[in-house]
């Protein structure tokens, strides 16, 4: 037994599982090289943006109180703008999560009487209450902003005819979600987002196109702003925080859109001038610096998992060979025990809370039990290795993250180990 195999065995990975994993990996070399190229490209992009804006040690100083003249905060926003190709950016610890960042972008750029359009189907669950699809206090609907939705066609393509018909005088903002979230539709590539925006702007040039970029940052070499988006929005406890940011969200894009968001986040008249960065700003910089590499680890993990479980006969979305536009991997187990075993494996491989056993549990907002596996340094951080899913047919697990490729690999091998021990898969006949 090799020394590395011994190391895995100490952690509970048996020989058949390890060897199965190595066989799968042997076929992924070229794909992994491509992913490394993307990470290299994006690493240079981040460093260029940091150098151009003269990031210096003083940028890491803590500001308190009003946060006037916070060099670190203001410089970081310039770095984000340059890195992602926007005119301006808002990157703040006061933006509590992705949903908050999206709500902020929407509520600050829409006015009563305006209409919001989603041309890519139902948005992420938490946005239903922001928009008012599910009635909620303070929703856009309560403020007289109406909503229209055009679903993707059954084959996943855009319903151009439907979109053309939905655009009207009142359409002020179009929201485009890049990642599939918890739906089974395909994730949109930046190129496809560009085609959609070009179509929409041809009909209505002044409409604001916003992209929900959650889980998409640094997966490709391009980001939505370079294909015509006016705003892109995301969470710092996902990709761009690189696992180090302990909180935060961002909005990057057109100056006016960002300005509107800043006046809504703080106050009319104050905008970007206030907002102390407290002690977190260094982690924002360092996290962004690491993010291209961290994202590449997560993408490798997703592809490794897809190929393992596809080989074992499960349905995986995206499949083992598809190109990637976000870090999410779904595996449809069709069997509760297998789904639970998978999550137990992810948990058992974690650096934090590895000794706890994830159990299906009732969660607010869901009509069935949900199981979640996460052993994260930052609560709820989904750039760290994590898995979750609603415990009902078809028993799909959504799996994402991994701060390092080797941890993602261990997590996936451990999930396979649990299925193997539970006699839920056979490895010998593959
Ligand atoms: C995670 C996510 C959100 C919401 O972000 P939270 O930080 O969980 O509030 C919105 N849209 C998409 C596509 C996401 O993946």
Report on this model:
- The protein is α/β, with parallel strands linked by helices and 430 residues long.
- The chain has 12 helices and 13 strands.
- The protein has helices at residues 3-11, 15-26, 29-52, 71-84, 98-109, 127-131, 160-166, 190-203, 255-265, 281-311, 336-348, 405-421; strands spanning 88-92, 115-118, 146-149, 171-177, 208-212, 231-235, 249-253, 315-317, 329-332, 361-362, 369-374, 386-390, 396-400.
- A 7-stranded mixed β-sheet has the order 1-7-6-5-4-2-3, with helices on both faces. It has a 6-stranded antiparallel β-sheet with strand order 8-9-13-12-11-10, with helices on one face.
- Helix 10 (281-311) packs parallel to helix 12.
- The radius of gyration is 22 Å and the shape is globular.
- The two termini are 22 Å apart.
- Pyridoxal-5'-phosphate is lined by residues 97-99, 102, 124, 126, 177, 179, 181, 212, 214-215, 235.
Structural class: alpha/beta
Radius of gyration: 22 Å
Poorly predicted sequence stretches spanning 5 or more consecutive residues? none
Say which molecules are bound, naming each kind only once.
pyridoxal-5'-phosphate
- Beta percentage is 5-15%
Strand order of the largest sheet: 1-7-6-5-4-2-3
Q: What is the approximate shape?
A: globular
Count helical runs.
12
Which H/E pattern describes the elements?
HHHHEHEHEHEHEEEHHEEHEEEEH
Average the pLDDT over all residues and give the rounded result: 96
Work out the helicity level: 25-40%
Sheet with the most strands, sense and barrel status: 7 strands, mixed
N-to-C span: 22 Å
Number of E strands: 13
């Amino acid at each position: 037994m090799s020394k590395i195999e011994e190391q895995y065995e100490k952690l509970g990975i048996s020989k058949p599982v390890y060897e199965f994993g190595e066989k799968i990996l042997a076929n992924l070399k070229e794909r992994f090289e491509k992913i490394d190229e993307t990470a290299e490209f994006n690493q240079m992009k981040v460093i260029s943006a940091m150098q151009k804006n003269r990031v210096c040690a003083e940028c890491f100083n803590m500001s308190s109180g009003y946060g006037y003249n916070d060099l670190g905060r203001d410089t970081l926003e310039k770095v984000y703008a340059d890195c992602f190709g926007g005119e301006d950016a808002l990157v703040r610890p006061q933006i509590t999560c992705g949903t908050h960042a999206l709500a902020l972008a929407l509520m600050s750029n829409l006015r009563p009487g305006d209409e919001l359009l989603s041309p890519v189907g139902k948005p992420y669950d938490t946005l239903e209450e922001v928009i008012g699809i599910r009635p909620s206090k303070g929703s856009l609907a309560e403020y007289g902003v109406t909503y229209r939705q055009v679903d993707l066609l059954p084959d996943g393509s855009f319903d151009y005819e439907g979109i053309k018909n939905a655009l009207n005088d009142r359409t002020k903002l179009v929201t485009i979600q890049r990642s599939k979230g918890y739906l089974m539709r395909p994730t949109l590539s930046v190129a496809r987002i560009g085609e959609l925006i070009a179509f929409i702007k041809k009909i209505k040039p002044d409409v604001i196109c916003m992209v929900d970029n959650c889980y998409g940052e640094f997966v490709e070499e391009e980001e939505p702003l370079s294909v015509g988006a006016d705003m892109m929005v995301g969470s710092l406890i996902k990709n761009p925080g690189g696992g180090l940011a302990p909180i935060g969200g961002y909005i990057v894009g057109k100056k006016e859109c960002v300005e509107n968001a800043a006046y809504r986040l703080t106050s009319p008249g104050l905008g970007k001038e206030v907002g102390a960065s407290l002690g977190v700003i260094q982690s924002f910089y360092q996290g962004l610096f690491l993010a291209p590499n961290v994202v590449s680890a997560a993408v490798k993990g997703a592809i490794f998992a897809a190929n393992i479980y596809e080989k074992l006969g499960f349905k995986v979305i995206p499949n083992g060979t598809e190109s990637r536009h976000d870090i999410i991997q779904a595996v449809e187990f069709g069997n509760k025990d297998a789904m639970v075993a998978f999550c137990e494996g992810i948990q058992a491989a974690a650096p934090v809370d590895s000794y706890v056993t994830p159990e299906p549990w009732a969660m607010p907002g869901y009509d069935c039990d949900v199981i979640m596996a996460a052993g994260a340094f930052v609560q709820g951080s989904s750039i760290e290795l994590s898995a979750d899913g609603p415990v009902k047919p078809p028993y799909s697990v959504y799996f994402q993250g991994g701060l390092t490729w080797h941890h993602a690999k261990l997590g996936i091998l451990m999930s396979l180990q649990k299925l193997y021990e539970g006699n839920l898969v056979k490895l010998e006949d593959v």
